[in-house]
Amino acid sequence: MSDIRPKILIPGQIRERVILRLQEKCDIVRIERADPDLIDPELAPEITGAAVSGRFSAELMERLPALRIIASFGVGYDGVDVGAAAARGIVVTNTPDVLNEEVADTTLALLLNTVRRYPQAEAWLREGRWERDGQFPLTPLTLRGRKIGIYGLGRIGMAIARRLEGFGVEISYHTRTPRPGVAYTYHSTLLGLASAVDTLIAIVPKTPDTYKTINAEVLGALGANGVLINVGRGWTVDEDDLARALRDGTIAAAGLDVFQDEPHVPRAFLDMPNMSLLPHVASASVATRDAMADLVADNLLGWFFNGAPLTPVAETPYPH
Ligand code: NAP
Ligand code: 8YV
After folding, report:
1. Domain CATH for 14
2. 31 contacts: CB under 8 Å, gap ≥ 6
3. Residue 156 Cα: closest atom of ligand 1
4. pLDDT, tens only, 128-151
5. Do residues 258 and 230 touch, judged by C-beta distance below 8 A?
6. Does the model's pTM come out above 0.90?
7. Distance spanning both ends of the chain, measured CA to CA
8. The ligand 1 atom nearest the CA atom of 176
9. pLDDT for res 320
10. Is the CB of 283 under 6 A from ligand 2?
11. Is 187 a catalytic residue?
12. Looking at ligand 1, which atom is closest to the CA of residue 281?
């Protein structure tokens, strides 16, 4: 057990619980945002760890010569320059698994809201329209008989698929490599999957390979009864193509929790009656965000006091 108190940099905002967990054994150095110029040059050589929710650039790493570990809040770690971290021997950690079930719950809620228009039905009741105008209109769409394609059958994709089994729908998927031990139908291309199903659920990471992969061609393949749900990253969807497809009836409806340029949401989406929109809340319960905060802290405490981080990302494995 080391009795040295590591100095941990926290750029910008992070869940308070991360700080509460760390400060017993570590000194916390906060800067307002992830701007290299905000780092005190006298402190910089002493900073050995960092906790971040959001961006952590190569420039920031450059200013921190003793940095050994960056613990990122969230399972997606696209805000951290992992290539630069790997090149410098810095370990990056994320928060996998502890949010799988929460995110899968939200995905099913978003799917049902999109198909059966429950938020609009509740607004109808609250606005007094049930009494004034009568029954809320029947929904043209239903989950019954749908063929669901999951784009990304990883930890969260599997939790979504398990829930969908209970809904009695057909399930297939696309990943780069078939997932061993699952009975769902595999498609080796996204276009092949979209052509075979009428409902596409995207839960892939933000990588160069997933950029705007859900485009006009894929939406066209889904067809007029088609429904798109995205809970991965906004990066994966061509938002102009999606707006066009929803306007001209190429697909029937879409539900999004994530957007290209958050928190900005395209005006076209806000005006669209056949969309269900959420402000990136898939993991946003106190319990799940606390579990994520604990894993951020435990990765740093594991590294400094137990010899190993708990959940290093694939690009910066530990031991190296
Ligand atoms: P994961 O376990 O790593 O699963 C990722 C899946 O995507 C794997 O099945 C992977 O399979 C597939 N994949 C990756 N790149 C692909 C590509 N180019 N083409 C086809 N499939 C690809 O990750 P996870 O824990 O399920 O999380 C997935 C993502 O969800 C996160 O990275 C994050 O961006 C997002 N997320 C969003 C929220 C939210 O609040 N909305 C919450 C949590 C997570 P192959 O490697 O075989 O291709
Ligand atoms: C969080 C997420 O909203 O884990 C992820 O990848 O997108 C969400 O759980 C986000 O990380 C909080 O900053």
Report:
1. 3.40.50.720
2. 9, 10, 11, 12, 38, 39
3. 26
4. 999 999 999 999 999 999 999 999
5. yes
6. yes
7. 22
8. 48
9. 75
10. yes
11. no
12. 40
> pLDDT digit string (tens) for 232-245?
999 999 999 999 99
Classify residue 163: in a domain, yes or no.
yes
Looking at the structure, tell me whether residues 72 and 148 fall in a common domain.
no
Q: Do 30 and 118 belong to one domain? A: no
Helix (H), strand (E) at residue 270:
helix 267-270
To the query of whether residue 24 is one of the catalytic residues in this protein, the response is: no
- Pick from 13, 206, 210, 283 the residue to mutate for probing ligand 2's pocket: most ligand atoms within 8 Å of its CB: 283
The catalytic position among 280, 289, 315, 320 is 280
Triad 79, 80, 81: Cα angle to 5°? 120
Active site (annotated) includes residue 262: yes
Nearest-5° Cα angle at 314, 38 to 290:
60
Residues 40, 37: Cα–Cα separation, whole Å: 8
Phi, psi dihedrals of residue 262, rounded to the nearest 5°: -65, 145
